[in-house]
Amino acid sequence: QLFCLFLGVWGDELSVLRSPQSVVFRDGGWPLPGERIPDVAALSMGFSVEDDLPWPGLGVGDLFNRPRATVLVTVKGVEKLTLPEKGISYPIENAVPFSLDSVANAIHSLFSEETPVILQLAPSEERVYMVGKANSVFEDLSVTLRQLRNRLFQNNSILSSLPLNSLSRNNEVDLLFLSELQVLHDIASLLSRHKHLAKDRSPDLYSLELAGLEEIGKRYGEDSQQFKDASQILAESLQKFADEMYNLYSGNAVVEVVAVKAFNSPLTRKTRSILQSTESEKDNPYNLAHEYDYDYAVIFNIILWMMIGLALAVIVVSYNLWNMDPGYDSIIYRMTNQKIRMD
């Protein structure tokens, strides 16, 4: 029924703090490949993935009761994030950069008419992507560094209630970290004004990337008091953010946090030049056929049996027309003969 899935990571580790009846996580130290994290998010929402996930940590669960929202927060530059609540944890092997673009595309293609809320945001890089009703819900959300700085010094910002400890309001690195916490607070606050969106049929997706803690570690060092205070503040803020999103979606939300010290390779996206029109021989030197899509078998069977059915229908109709007696089987001839006799 109602649930919140909150994933915390100690170093390169995935931890489940809350698990509902509809999503089953088994207790065990099974490692999860870093590139399959988006597949875990997709499967927990009830979507299919291209390649099977032979990971025993995620069970089947309730297929008819899927979450209304998935929230994934990526925290960079931390080896251990001590969250207020502890749950099932899994180590992450080969921590490589990932994105939830595939999950966002699945939601957008299946629920395009219902305009779900899709928000992907990286405050430190000023990168934002909004789809559907997110444009109206988060139109007042600060996304640029200038907007975030101005937001922090407003009367209702987190600076008025957050204990800074060793952090400073006059340091740009500290302000970047605090601005990311402000984004978490504002997302939950703005969504609370549109609670009806959390009760509709379409699932929502939130993907956030936080790099402020990593910058504090580079500026002060990981053994500094600033880094320790920032880690504690971030853990408490993430827990509070998870509870707020859990309540806004009436417990039917998945909240994930992935924290890694450093990714093994940078995130790259494949691009294609507009001048590239043909495939060179070096790209395919052995003249091999292209790989089939995973939907090929389904499409092939649909077309095959439809053609067989149409061919059988044509044969049956042709056979009956060929052996039809016009004077006995056709009503046209019978009506014509009766009219001739009457005349």
UniProtKB/TrEMBL annotation:
Gene that this polypeptide is encoded by = Atp6ap2
Pfam families in UniProt: Renin_r, RENR_N
**Which segments cross the bilayer?**
296-322
**Subcellular location, in the record's words?**
Cell projection, Dendritic spine membrane; Cytoplasmic vesicle, Autophagosome membrane; Cytoplasmic vesicle, Clathrin-coated vesicle membrane; Cytoplasmic vesicle, Secretory vesicle, Synaptic vesicle membrane
Q: How does it sit in the membrane?
A: Single-pass type I membrane protein
By what name is this protein known? Renin receptor
Keywords from UniProt, A to Z, are: Cell membrane, Cleavage on pair of basic residues, Endoplasmic reticulum, Membrane, Receptor, Signal, Transmembrane, Transmembrane helix
InterPro entries registered for this protein in UniProt: Renin_r_C, Renin_rcpt, RENR_N
Keyword Chloroplast listed: no
Domain Renin receptor-like C-terminal transmembrane spanning segment positions? 269-343
Protein function: Multifunctional protein which functions as a renin, prorenin cellular receptor and is involved in the assembly of the lysosomal proton-transporting V-type ATPase (V-ATPase) and the acidification of the endo-lysosomal system. May mediate renin-dependent cellular responses by activating ERK1 and ERK2. By increasing the catalytic efficiency of renin in AGT/angiotensinogen conversion to angiotensin I, may also play a role in the renin-angiotensin system (RAS).
Q: Which GO terms describe its molecular function?
A: signaling receptor activity
Where does the Renin receptor N-terminal domain start and stop, copy by copy?
Answer: 11-261
- Complex and partners: Interacts with renin. Accessory component of the multisubunit proton-transporting vacuolar (V)-ATPase protein pump. Interacts (via N-terminus) with ATP6AP1 (via N-terminus). Interacts with ATP6V0D1; ATP6V0D1 is a V-ATPase complex subunit and the interaction promotes V-ATPase complex assembly. Interacts with TMEM9; TMEM9 is a V-ATPase assembly regulator and the interaction induces the interaction with ATP6V0D1. Interacts with VMA21 (via N-terminus); VMA21 is a V-ATPase accessory component.
